Amino acid sequence: MPIENTPLSVLELAVVAQGGNAGQAIADTVSVAKHVEQLGYRSIWLAEHHNMQHVASSATAVLIGHIAGHTHRIHVGSGGIMLPNHAPLMVAEQFGTLESIYPGRIELGLGRAPGTDQTTALALRRSNLNTAFSFPADVQELMSYFKNDDPDVKVRAFPGEGLKIPFYMLGSSTDSAHLAAHLGLPYAFAAHFAPSQLRSAVNIYRNEFRPSEQLAEPHVMVCVNAFGADTDAEAYRLATSLFQMFIGMVTNRRAPLPPPVDSLDAYWNEEIRQAVMRMAACTFIGDRKTLRSQFADFHRDVHYDELIVTSHIFDHQAKLRSFDVIRQAFS
Question: Which structural domain, as residue segments, surrounds residue 18?
Answer without folding.
Answer: 3-329
